[in-house]
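Intended use. Records like the one below are meant for learning the mapping from a protein sequence to its folded structure. Do not use them to infer anything beyond what is encoded.
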Amino acid sequence: MTDTAESNAADGSSSLHDLADVLDGWSNEELGNLGSLLEMGRIFEADQIIDRIKWLYHSKARAGTEAFTKNTLGRLRSKLSDYKHSSSQTENLRKVPTYDELIIGACKHLKAFDEASSIEEHELFLTHAVITAALQKMEPRERQKFFEQQVAFSEITSKANVSGPDLKGPATTFALLGAAQASGFGIYLASTTALGFLTHAVGVTLPFAIYTGMTSTIAFLIGPAGWLGAGIWSTWKLTEPEWKKLVPALVCIVATNSLKNLQASRLK
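Structure written out for the chain above:
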């Protein structure tokens, strides 16, 4: 999220976090990663990405049916009375969802919603839900690797070009996430790790680097591509958001903005 926006009620009903604001200042590389996750190719236009998210969240099929029905009834009414019919366009029947609505919706979908929590907390809940789902889908030995794999924290901060807690020597990934959380670094590590799981799960390689050393260790050395995809998503209907595409995109937004915030704080 942007630094200037304040947290709002968890239902997102009066959110200040518009998607355009959340993506403000993103580089072509960052937008390219997001576009790839949304199956748009290496697109660099924020407006097109926002429109894609809008119709993944809202059912375009349902909106089109609604527009057809309204137009048919409007034309019929205009023939029977002095009513002046104006055509309803599918594009105008749905608004762009706010970032808050998307995060809350994704958390509800993954059963990670807490009514009393802020949007910032739900960003973390979302990444933890993805990691938890990944762990549940792993074979026992693969899960053991996650808990016992050792990673040097200094390598992660060096690759990300950020400052972090001064941890000496390698630590297990599980311990590292806990230590990072205590230092305020946790949302970045959790979100990049979750993003690594999600992209690996569907066999997607992002065109531009975003991952930390820990993410590459966990997500790309454990299990074959596609092992996560079958179990984390409930079957979606034409009238529901396509969370299979939206959740990776949202985790990418969390990871990218958390990294940008860390890098900005390093310059202060």
